[in-house]
């Protein structure tokens, strides 16, 4: 046990030793902070001791959730209060939202507004932030305190505290370097992930939605045509239907009935339209205008 809970004075009862609380009050080892800083690129290879002494306290701040501050004050009132990652979290959250929004809008220019918002959440939302933090190894470095549910706020769980680390990390990279380096970090750890955007597009009546889209672009009205069929009078028929706008085939699909095949064909046409990606290099992200500055 630590020295503060041991006593050699006769007749004095030693204090009760609370192991989990004692461990929670200890700062992370410098070796783990250094390994984390090298892992995320905050420290270059073979960095100097002076640079490590400057960066490691900032890494410790990144891994300190605001809930840890009142917990530390309650048990160590005379010790210096550690800085939380709240300011860096705010900056990083805004930057991640900016990077993801412009990337989704530039890559899939025809995506509807609701689907765009859902795609941004898929790239930089809570679940992705939690997974990135675990992949970076921030779980062992995180300092936080579980708080119960109140009338004004929900209970704080590990996922809520851990997902602030990547956001604060983006804010720290922006603060130490530039918006260019912050965007590179976001592209490497967030925007490079594969997201199935088809699950974000749900249509109640795809043919009606397709008609609205074609009217918007000034194309001819959609026409569905039966391309092939097999087993019409059996228990397992298969119909292949294509949807056309003039001579251009927009989509194609199959089904066990003509209505199902038509529904899926119109849905496939909408997917092909909304999920059409702009060629790489054909666009410039708006935030890249800050690179020259």
Automatic annotation (TrEMBL):
Subcellular locations according to the entry: Mitochondrion
GO annotation, cellular component aspect: mitochondrion
Keywords linked to the UniProt accession: Mitochondrion, Ribonucleoprotein, Ribosomal protein, RNA-binding
GO biological process: RNA processing
Alphabetized GO MF terms: double-stranded RNA binding; ribonuclease III activity; structural constituent of ribosome
InterPro entries: Ribosomal_mL44_DSRM_fung, Ribosomal_mL44_DSRM_metazoa, RNase_III_dom, RNase_III_sf
Top-level taxon in the UniProt lineage: Eukaryota
A Pfam family reported for this protein in Swiss-Prot or TrEMBL: DSRM_MRPL44
Limits of the RNase III domain: 33-178
PANTHER family, per database record: LARGE RIBOSOMAL SUBUNIT PROTEIN ML44 (PTHR11207:SF32), RIBONUCLEASE III (PTHR11207)
Designated name of the protein: Large ribosomal subunit protein mL44
């Amino acid at each position: 046990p630590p020295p503060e809970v041991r006593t050699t004075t006769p007749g004095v009862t030693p204090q009760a030793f609370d192991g989990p609380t004692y461990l929670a009050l200890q700062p992370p080892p410098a070796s783990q902070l250094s390994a984390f800083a090298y892992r995320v690129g905050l420290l270059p290879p073979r960095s100097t001791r002076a640079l490590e002494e400057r960066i490691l306290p900032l890494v410790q701040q990144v891994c300190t959730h605001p809930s840890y501050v009142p917990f530390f004050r309650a048990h160590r009132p005379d010790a210096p209060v550690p800085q939380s990652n709240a300011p860096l979290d705010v900056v990083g959250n805004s930057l991640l939202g900016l990077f993801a929004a412009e990337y989704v809008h530039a890559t899939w220019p025809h995506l509807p507004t609701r689907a765009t918002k859902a795609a941004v959440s898929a790239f930089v939302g809570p679940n992705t932030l939690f997974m990135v933090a675990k992949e970076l190894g921030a779980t062992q470095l995180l300092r936080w305190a579980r708080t119960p549910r109140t009338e004004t706020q929900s209970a704080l769980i590990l996922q809520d505290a851990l997902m602030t680390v990547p956001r604060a990390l983006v804010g720290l990279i922006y603060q130490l370097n530039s918006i260019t380096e912050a965007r590179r970090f976001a592209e490497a750890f967030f925007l490079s992930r594969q997201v199935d955007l088809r699950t974000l597009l749900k249509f109640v009546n795809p043919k009606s939605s397709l008609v609205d889209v074609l009217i918007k672009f000034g194309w001819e009205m959609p026409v569905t045509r039966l391309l092939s069929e097999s087993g019409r009078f059996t228990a397992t028929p298969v119909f292949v239907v294509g949807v056309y706008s003039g001579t251009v085939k927009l989509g194609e699909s199959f089904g066990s009935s003509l209505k199902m095949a038509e529904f899926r064909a119109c849905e496939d046409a909408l997917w092909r339209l909304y999920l059409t990606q702009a060629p790489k290099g054909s666009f410039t992200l708006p935030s890249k205008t800050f690179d020259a500055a």
